[in-house]
């Protein structure tokens, strides 16, 4: 793999930190509508929540333009990534993906015996789709695409990706992780969910952790062909892992379009502020379609983490192609100002 992450020997004391810019969370959430729904639903927690789950699934299926049978729920999209990997790779095989990419599905696939066919990203950090297609062989059980991609923040243009998914899913299932897609702006940022209406074997993962501001409340879902989901759910059930309060919280945040629009707007403002300041300091960032930005730094990753943590700023540090990089999540503007100031003091 092209990526290695750095960690401090000791975990920082999170409650003493001034800016938590390490986990691509939503600094404004959960929305007040969700807070209210969660508080009011506590008393219903003695019952299983099938009815409320069905209400949420119904709303999501209408949004995605599919039937409720095309949706599998989970406590966060991590749950879906992991379950799909467990079931698909329990007899081995290989998974084709970009490198760098988000490693959750791949790590589970590898741990149950699959191999990873890592295809380096192109020079603009988008997916190298022809190389990925060429890497598919008789043992390939799935192609994993993270779009926009984590940790690089890049997008692979919608039209190219649509053609790729449409063609490749005739051979093997294509999993498209769209955790950050609602935050992406500009052309080429369309969802691959439209391929389901054409009966294509694609699986789209979405989460309430990012634009909906519910990372700690844990709700996510996969949209796929019912036959594909049946195969997964025969072995491991979906919605069973989500609490009653989180289901009600998710219904509220789903309806709260104002909160989502505000998140998107403030996220863009923070990115613009950051870009401007990174340019002033001569850091060359990758333009981001997400709520995080990655850029090369000129001190070793672990030293960088130690210095930023000492200033109360939590970020992530990676080596990519043997060079150190910082990945910073968008926080509030106040947190971004502290990040910029702290970074300036290092150079
Ligand atoms: N997919 C990507 C690309 C992510 O970056 C993350 C989390 O950061 C997830 C999935 C999992 O998120 P969650 O389990 O909170 O839905």
UniProtKB/TrEMBL annotation:
<dbReference type="InterPro" id="IPR006311">
    <property type="entry name" value="TAT_signal"/>
</dbReference>
<protein>
    <submittedName>
        <fullName>Histidinol-phosphate aminotransferase</fullName>
    </submittedName>
</protein>
<keyword id="KW-0732">Signal</keyword>
<dbReference type="InterPro" id="IPR004839">
    <property type="entry name" value="Aminotransferase_I/II_large"/>
</dbReference>
<dbReference type="GO" id="GO:0008483">
    <property type="term" value="F:transaminase activity"/>
</dbReference>
<comment type="similarity">
    <text>Belongs to the class-II pyridoxal-phosphate-dependent aminotransferase family. Histidinol-phosphate aminotransferase subfamily.</text>
</comment>
<dbReference type="InterPro" id="IPR015421">
    <property type="entry name" value="PyrdxlP-dep_Trfase_major"/>
</dbReference>
<dbReference type="InterPro" id="IPR015424">
    <property type="entry name" value="PyrdxlP-dep_Trfase"/>
</dbReference>
<dbReference type="GO" id="GO:0030170">
    <property type="term" value="F:pyridoxal phosphate binding"/>
</dbReference>
<dbReference type="Pfam" id="PF00155">
    <property type="entry name" value="Aminotran_1_2"/>
</dbReference>
<dbReference type="InterPro" id="IPR015422">
    <property type="entry name" value="PyrdxlP-dep_Trfase_small"/>
</dbReference>
<keyword id="KW-0032">Aminotransferase</keyword>
<dbReference type="InterPro" id="IPR050106">
    <property type="entry name" value="HistidinolP_aminotransfase"/>
</dbReference>
<feature type="domain" description="Aminotransferase class I/classII large">
    <location>
        <begin position="20"/>
        <end position="343"/>
    </location>
</feature>
<keyword id="KW-0663">Pyridoxal phosphate</keyword>
<keyword id="KW-0808">Transferase</keyword>
